[in-house]
Amino acid sequence: MIAISALPIAVQAALVVTLVLVEAIVLYVGYGLIEERIAPPILEVIESV
Amino acid sequence: MELLGLPPELLVLFVSFGFMVGVFFGFFGMGGSFLVTPALLILGYPAPVAIGSSMAFVFGTAVIATLKHHDVGQVDYKLGALMFVGIVLGIEAGKMLVFGLEAIGQAELVVGTAYVLLLGAIGIVFTRNALKQDASEDDDQQTDDDIPEIAKKIKSYNIPPMVTLTDGSKASMWTISGVGGGVGVVSGFLGVGGGFIRMPAIYYLIGVPLAAAVGTSLFGALMSGAVGAFSYGLSGVIDIGVVTALLVGSALGARIGSASTAYVDEDDVTIYFGIMLLLASVAVAFGEFANWFEMPILDTVSFVLLIGSSIFVTAVIIYYGALAVRERKVTTDVTPHGDD
């Protein structure tokens, strides 16, 4: 396993940017799927309260 | 036990704060990043870490927002790409300023003071607009495809090199670079996406229609965030644990905020947002006073003001949203039986 701190600083910086990009895409897709499933029942609950 | 390098209480705090920031971003289309840096400063993070982490957060948030706008075709990628050089140079200049101030021990003071003024100014604009919204209703007759007179006048000066934008109109490369560079300096210095400056600049100075200006501004924030995160990453000052926790909250909050726009009239809650920004300005000022007078109690007051006002406005948006959903249900139920 390669220690990240052993990599050149430019590569570390690029990894940070890539990591944030991947996190953002995963969250966008993941929450989108969750929203499709749970948004309708939540709206129904709010309407019935 | 730590997760993402954060103790549980800080993790919960950052996810919750990210959620609130996401709701503002989803609902108002702004208000994300310029609350994060002050919060990190108040929590005692050094200015370069607060700004660098905020830039990485801006990048993640802008990726999510741009994906949404891309789906409805409201992004001028060509214009965004043309601004790139200006953004890079501007952010580098802003970053050099931060590290120069850090070297003489003045970064927190100057950045904090800049935030007091910035949040105060934007807060005043929002509050004033909310208070006189009735008087300005006539101004809303402009369509999304219109561009303001000042933009038409600027476009009439043909200063080469001229470039053709996606909508077929032309703009000077100098104007585009100036907008990119100017907003880049602010982004690099304060750790913000700069949408509150870039969007009006793209609309008023470059003359891109409003709907496309919003999407293109988000794409600009994406580039600013990427360049800023890389630049601050080179200095090793980004706290990826903080960024991840904030993103987990904000991605969810942004969905709820943008969904709420379908139910809630923005005019109903704009005044609360304006007041929240004014309180955030006061909060950062208290944080500065806490350092000057070495009074930790002021740090607590500052923290409570910032988080408390954010919680209040988030609750108002969600409350109005829930109320509107219920009212719509009642209306739907009553209308078919209205003659009974």
Protein model, in words:
- With 49 residues, chain A is an all-alpha fold.
- Chain A is 82% helix and 0% strand.
- Chain B has one domain.
- The mean pLDDT of chain B is 81.
- Classes of the chains: A mainly alpha (49), B mainly alpha (340).
Primary descriptors:
heterodimer; A: 49 residues; mainly alpha; 1 helix; rod-shaped; B: mainly alpha; globular; transmembrane helix (chain A)
Structural class of chain A: mainly alpha
The N- to C-terminal Cα distance of chain A equals 54 Å
Low-pLDDT segments, ≥5 res of chain A:
none
> What is the helix tally of chain A?
1
How many beta-strand segments of chain A? 0
Q: Beta-sheet strand percentage of chain A?
A: under 5%
Globular, elongated, flat, extended or rod-shaped: what is the shape of chain B? globular
Please state how the strands of the largest beta sheet of chain B are arranged side by side: 1-2
Low-confidence stretches of chain B: none
| Helix-strand topology string of chain B | HHHHHHHEEHHHHHH
Helical amount of chain A: over 70%
Structural class of chain B: mainly alpha
Family (chain B): Belongs to the 4-toluene sulfonate uptake permease (TSUP) (TC 2.A.102) family.
Protein name (chain B): Probable membrane transporter protein
Transmembrane segments (chain B): 12-36, 43-67, 79-97, 109-127, 171-190, 202-223, 229-248, 269-289, 301-322
Keywords (chain B): Cell membrane, Membrane, Transmembrane, Transmembrane helix
In brief:
The complex is a heterodimer of chains A (49) and B (340). Chain A has 49 residues and is an all-alpha fold.
Tell me the layout of helices and strands.
The complex is a heterodimer of chains A (49) and B (340).
Chain A: H1 9-48
Chain B: H1 8-28, H2 33-42, H3 47-71, H4 77-82, H5 84-103, H6 107-131, H7 149-156, E1 162-164, E2 170-172, H8 173-190, H9 195-206, H10 210-234, H11 240-260, H12 266-293, H13 296-334
